[in-house]
């Protein structure tokens, strides 16, 4: 079996863990996601890796280095998905990391530094509205009180979901590796956008990661009969929500040059009916960008809009911040090394920011971090038709392998003192 067939087989094994009929549904801390995680651990064990799971559910599979005491080089991503998502988001990075280990074993390469394959828990925000919980826990930035009572669509809290998987939210802080010396972290991921494909580039070298600010906004008016309530006497919560959404789009468009975006991704009408003026509406807002100043301008406009709509439409509006994260810049040294690898291998590449959040953004707090993109066909992601060509995946794995080997060699200055 050649490498291409081997990787496809590995990838397909992961894809079979799915609770839905359309796309892939493998949501964090569910039976399907936990079964997939256990299967991945068995795959790692088959390659001779030492495996452990931390208190948040992150899998850490370690290949020891030749020299004891050196800090590990980490690589990985996540296995959980959104509802009715695609096969590639996250899964590519985890399976690619294991494929790199398979290649090292195949070649009999013994690295100086230990290497760890990481599968982070709960990267997607689809279940609880907050993302990258596993890497936050590893980076020591898991705020248990802020997330403890967040609920999924079935009313299950994060604390309950963790407990059902035999984790305790009050113990998650023990997953922190803040006091540990880690040499570097690398994540391979699909682009989730159309840029690389449109520009015929095979590798995206990510320079920085945008971070989200997310809000739940509840708009309360008065439910009333649609036929007997005059237009000028209505307190229509849906129209208030719509006005906020349109203003949010307008201000985000004005920040296009900075790359800032804003989305109303959820709109719920409480007790909605065709013949009832909506009395209570909840919307969920996602604002993100790599420019802190630009993102703040959008936030300021949103707050002013809420105040204006509340006053002019005689509504009561409560806005609650779900999460706020800071944009990050990735390691300049790693970016330069990746660029050298691409040039030496004659791989078309592009320097680019990431508009989506990734576990890499939290790992920056622990060590120098690099993020590699491979093309997404038609830019689709979080979608059943999400796809990346196998040949493009293998090019990404080639780059990941080379950068991991480069960083797992002992520095010459250290070697002289050993």
From TrEMBL:
<dbReference type="GO" id="GO:0016813">
    <property type="term" value="F:hydrolase activity, acting on carbon-nitrogen (but not peptide) bonds, in linear amidines"/>
</dbReference>
<dbReference type="InterPro" id="IPR001261">
    <property type="entry name" value="ArgE/DapE_CS"/>
</dbReference>
<dbReference type="InterPro" id="IPR011650">
    <property type="entry name" value="Peptidase_M20_dimer"/>
</dbReference>
<feature type="binding site">
    <location>
        <position position="275"/>
    </location>
    <ligand>
        <name>allantoate</name>
    </ligand>
</feature>
<feature type="binding site">
    <location>
        <position position="89"/>
    </location>
    <ligand>
        <name>Zn(2+) 2</name>
    </ligand>
</feature>
<feature type="binding site">
    <location>
        <position position="78"/>
    </location>
    <ligand>
        <name>Zn(2+) 1</name>
    </ligand>
</feature>
<dbReference type="Pfam" id="PF07687">
    <property type="entry name" value="M20_dimer"/>
</dbReference>
<dbReference type="GO" id="GO:0046872">
    <property type="term" value="F:metal ion binding"/>
</dbReference>
<keyword id="KW-0378">Hydrolase</keyword>
<protein>
    <submittedName>
        <fullName>Zn-dependent hydrolase</fullName>
    </submittedName>
</protein>
<dbReference type="Pfam" id="PF01546">
    <property type="entry name" value="Peptidase_M20"/>
</dbReference>
<feature type="binding site">
    <location>
        <position position="214"/>
    </location>
    <ligand>
        <name>allantoate</name>
    </ligand>
</feature>
<keyword id="KW-0479">Metal-binding</keyword>
<dbReference type="InterPro" id="IPR010158">
    <property type="entry name" value="Amidase_Cbmase"/>
</dbReference>
<comment type="similarity">
    <text>Belongs to the peptidase M20 family.</text>
</comment>
<feature type="binding site">
    <location>
        <position position="124"/>
    </location>
    <ligand>
        <name>Zn(2+) 2</name>
    </ligand>
</feature>
<feature type="binding site">
    <location>
        <position position="288"/>
    </location>
    <ligand>
        <name>allantoate</name>
    </ligand>
</feature>
<keyword id="KW-0862">Zinc</keyword>
<feature type="binding site">
    <location>
        <position position="189"/>
    </location>
    <ligand>
        <name>Zn(2+) 1</name>
    </ligand>
</feature>
<dbReference type="InterPro" id="IPR002933">
    <property type="entry name" value="Peptidase_M20"/>
</dbReference>
<feature type="binding site">
    <location>
        <position position="382"/>
    </location>
    <ligand>
        <name>Zn(2+) 2</name>
    </ligand>
</feature>
<feature type="domain" description="Peptidase M20 dimerisation">
    <location>
        <begin position="214"/>
        <end position="306"/>
    </location>
</feature>
<dbReference type="InterPro" id="IPR036264">
    <property type="entry name" value="Bact_exopeptidase_dim_dom"/>
</dbReference>
<feature type="binding site">
    <location>
        <position position="89"/>
    </location>
    <ligand>
        <name>Zn(2+) 1</name>
    </ligand>
</feature>
């Amino acid at each position: 079996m050649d490498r291409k067939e081997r990787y496809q087989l590995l990838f397909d094994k992961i894809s079979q863990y799915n609770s839905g009929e359309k796309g892939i549904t493998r949501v964090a801390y569910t039976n399907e996601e936990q079964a997939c995680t256990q299967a991945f651990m068995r795959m790692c064990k088959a390659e001779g890796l030492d495996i452990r799971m931390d208190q948040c559910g992150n899998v850490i599979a370690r290949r020891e280095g030749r020299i004891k005491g050196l800090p590990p080089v980490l690589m990985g991503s996540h296995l959980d998905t959104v509802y009715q998502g695609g096969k590639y988001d996250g899964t590519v990075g985890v399976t690619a990391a294991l494929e790199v280990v398979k290649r090292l074993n195949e070649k009999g390469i013994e690295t100086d530094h230990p290497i760890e394959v990481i599968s982070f828990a709960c990267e997607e925000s689809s279940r609880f509205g907050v993302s990258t919980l596993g890497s936050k826990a590893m980076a020591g930035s898991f705020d248990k009180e802020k997330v403890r009572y967040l609920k999924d669509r079935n009313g299950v809290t994060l604390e309950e979901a963790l407990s059902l998987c035999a984790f305790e939210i009050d113990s998650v802080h023990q997953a922190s590796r803040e006091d540990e010396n880690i040499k570097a972290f690398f994540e391979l991921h699909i682009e989730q956008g159309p840029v690389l494909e449109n520009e015929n580039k095979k590798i995206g070298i990510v320079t920085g990661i945008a971070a989200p600010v997310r809000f739940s906004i509840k708009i309360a008016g008065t439910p009333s009969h649609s036929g007997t309530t005059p237009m000028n006497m209505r307190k229509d919560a849906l129209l208030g929500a719509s006005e906020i959404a349109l203003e949010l789009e307008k201000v985000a468009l004005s920040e296009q040059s900075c790359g800032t975006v804003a989305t109303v991704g959820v709109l719920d009408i409480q007790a909605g009916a065709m013949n009832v003026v909506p009395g209570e509406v909840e919307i969920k807002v996602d604002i993100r960008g790599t420019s802190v100043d630009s993102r703040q301008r959008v936030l300021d406009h949103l707050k002013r809009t809420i105040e204006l709509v509340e006053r002019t439409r005689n509504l009561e509006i409560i806005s609650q911040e779900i999460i706020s994260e800071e944009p990050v810049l990735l390691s300049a040294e790693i970016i330069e090394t990746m660029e050298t690898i691409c040039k030496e291998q004659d791989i078309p590449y592009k320097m680019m920011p990431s508009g989506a959040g990734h576990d890499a953004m939290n790992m920056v707090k622990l060590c120098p971090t690099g993020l590699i993109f491979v093309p997404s066909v038609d830019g689709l992601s979080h979608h059943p038709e999400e796809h990346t060509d196998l040949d493009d995946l293998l090019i990404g794995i080639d780059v990941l392998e080379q950068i991991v080997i480069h960083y797992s060699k002992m520095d010459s200055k250290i070697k002289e003192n050993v």
